[in-house]
Design a protein that fits this description.
Layout (H helix, E strand, L loop, with lengths): L7 H12 L5 H8 L3 H13 L18 E9 L5 H5 L2 H8 L3 E6 L3 E8 L2 H18 L3 E10 H4 L1 H4 L3 H7 L9
Helix pairs in contact: 1-3, 2-3
InterPro entries: WH_DNA-bd_sf (IPR036390)
Protein name: MarR family transcriptional regulator
Organism: Candidatus Iainarchaeum sp
Length: 176
């Protein structure tokens, strides 16, 4: 996919929709001091070009999820994904409802987990993942991280406004 060149107004609107995702077009146009019709046209163009995508994050606390965890690391050389995929451990891990994202290659892995309490996530990360894969001789290196959802501020993970400001060389005082 080729990089897209953005004009000044497109940069401003991109920053605005990332900085203020809950505002409708009328409110955002007022905040950015641009015409609503221009903002809507630019938003549609950015979406069509694949520069932005809409997605929704659930409020995890409202869903009784209190702990999130991640594990990442590397596999021992020579143990290919196709071999790991054939194990009972892989089948069990891939069916666990707490696993929300996993990516694995022949050499590396990354997984994100959610749970109602610390014990659930600990069981998943330690017993189901690390202990089973270590016993099978798969893991070379593992890092585990757990955090209370209250401290994680998941929505901030996806806040790219500071990077956009830096990338577009915006002056801080010039932006709303």
């Amino acid at each position: 996919m080729r990089p897209v060149r953005l004009m000044s107004l497109e940069k401003k609107v991109l920053y605005g929709i990332c900085r203020y995702p809950d505002l409708n077009d009328v409110e955002l146009a007022q905040r950015l001091e641009v015409k609503r019709s221009s903002l809507t046209a630019v938003r549609n163009r950015l979406t069509r070009k694949g520069v932005v995508k809409n997605f929704y994050l659930p409020n995890l606390e409202r869903l009784n999820v209190t702990v999130m965890g991640a594990c990442f690391g590397s596999f021992k050389p020579g143990i290919q994904f196709t071999k790991r995929r054939q194990t009972a451990a892989f089948a069990k891990i891939s069916r666990v409802p707490y696993l929300v994202f996993a990516k694995t290659t022949d050499t590396d892995y990354l997984g994100f987990f959610l749970g109602r309490d610390y014990a659930e996530v600990k069981w998943l990360l330690h017993e189901l993942w690390v202990d089973r894969y270590t016993a099978l001789g798969f893991l070379a290196e593992t890092t585990l991280v757990m955090s209370p959802v209250k401290l994680a501020h998941t929505e901030r993970f996806f806040d790219f406004t500071d990077k956009l400001r830096e990338l577009f060389a915006y002056k801080l005082e010039a932006l709303p």
